[in-house]
């Protein structure tokens, strides 16, 4: 009975939200226009500036990689203060949680725009925006991982006279590191896609190149840049799978 009630609630929410966005299948009757637009304007790919585009692809990866590494490096130790089972005081738990909630609630593009008057146009506003946002995201995910770990290894370290730090290092970290690495590569992919959006506000990389070429109706260049994005995301996906396999 509960399953049917749950299914009814999901269907009701689907219908309610669909009505809100005015979803209508009849709107797709001209979907062929989009395919014709791609066929007539996107091919053959324009690779005349391939070297420059590849350089911007590398810059996009550098922005995403640097910002996510810094973010996880800050969020990992802070998460122990935001987990109920490892925080020393309830006030610290609620305070750190509130900070994490605030950091991830502000969109990256808003943060980047805020930092442009200070840092100017270029990658740095995007880097700072991604670091701040990802600290909030990593903080929430890692603190919840810490709260769900098995108590057994922690009790073993405590019974041997281990301090709070030793319990964290030897009773908790070995359990969460594989999951943190998995979440890291997922967030790295998200950061790459976010960099494409931040290119609109002058953050550089493939996002800015896409924005400029769209404005100039250079769709064959856009098509080549889309291929580069697909290669970048796929490479990160395979690298993440390889690292996760090695860690596990």
UniProtKB/TrEMBL annotation:
Gene Ontology cellular-component terms listed: plasma membrane
Q: Where in the cell is it found?
A: Cell membrane
GO function terms (MF aspect): ABC-type phosphonate transporter activity
Which residues belong to any copy of the ABC transmembrane type-1 domain?
57-240
Q: Which residues cross the membrane?
A: 63-83, 163-185, 191-211, 223-243
Plastid listed as a keyword: no
Question: Can you tell me which family this protein belongs to?
Answer: Belongs to the binding-protein-dependent transport system permease family.
Q: What is this protein called?
A: Phosphonate ABC transporter, permease protein PhnE
The organism encoding this protein is Paenibacillus aurantius
């Amino acid at each position: 009975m509960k399953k049917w009630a749950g299914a009814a609630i999901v269907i009701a929410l689907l219908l309610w939200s669909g009505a809100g966005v005015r979803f209508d299948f009849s709107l797709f009757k001209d979907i062929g226009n989009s395919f014709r637009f791609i066929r007539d304007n996107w091919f053959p790919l324009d690779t005349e500036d391939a070297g420059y585009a590849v350089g911007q692809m590398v810059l996009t990866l550098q922005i995403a990689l640097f910002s996510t590494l810094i973010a996880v490096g800050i969020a990992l130790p802070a998460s122990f203060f935001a987990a109920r089972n490892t925080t020393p005081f309830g006030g610290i738990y609620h305070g750190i949680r509130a900070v994490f909630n605030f950091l991830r609630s502000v969109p990256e593009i808003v943060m980047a725009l805020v930092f442009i008057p200070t840092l100017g146009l270029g990658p740095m506003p995007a880097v700072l925006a991604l670091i701040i946002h990802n600290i909030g995201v990593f903080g929430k995910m890692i603190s919840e991982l810490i709260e769900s770990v098995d108590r057994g290894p922690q009790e073993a370290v405590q019974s041997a006279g281990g301090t709070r730090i030793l319990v964290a290092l030897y009773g908790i970290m070995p359990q969460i590191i594989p999951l943190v690495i998995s979440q890291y590569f997922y967030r790295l992919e998200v950061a790459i896609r976010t960099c494409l959006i931040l290119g609109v506000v002058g953050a550089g990389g493939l996002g800015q190149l896409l924005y400029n070429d769209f404005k100039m109706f250079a769709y064959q260049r856009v098509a080549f840049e889309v291929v580069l994005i697909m290669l970048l995301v796929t490479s990160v996906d395979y690298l993440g799978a390889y690292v996760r396999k090695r860690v596990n």
